[in-house]
Amino acid sequence: MADISTLEEGIKAREDGADILSTTLAGYTLESAASPSDAPDFELLEQLVSNTDCPVILEGRIWSPAQVDKAFEIGAHAVVIGSAITRPQLITKKFVFRGKN
Question: Which long-range contacts (CB under 8 A, 24 or more apart) does 82-85 make?
Answer without folding.
Answer: none
